[in-house]
Amino acid sequence: MKSTELCPRLQKSMDLIGRRWTGLIIYQLLQGPQRFGEIEAALPVSGRLLSERLKELEQEGIVLREVFPETPVRIQYSLTGKGRALESVIRDLQVWSESWITEEECRSVSSAPPQPQ
Fold first, then answer.
1. Cα distance between residue 79 and residue 34, in whole Å
2. Fewest beta carbons within 10 Å, which of 71, 73, 74, 76?
């Protein structure tokens, strides 16, 4: 494959996965379908930003938003085949981070002020 064909695709994928919270949302959904509140409770992210990221992931075909016609309405999010295909990438990043990111670096990231996205 020519490098000119790969670069835009790689850039698109890095832009998508590199957005703040996107990788962690995908990681959370690897556990299976979840409601918005479950995802929100599992991650230290605002509801507004979580909603934005889920919409972006749905538009990209990575997340499926399923509405159940119940009272009250139940909405569930799950990964599509395209989203599940990211599992090996996410798991590899997890292994890499466990090998190369120190506890001190984790504390400095968690105490840093949030970056706008």
1. 10
2. 71
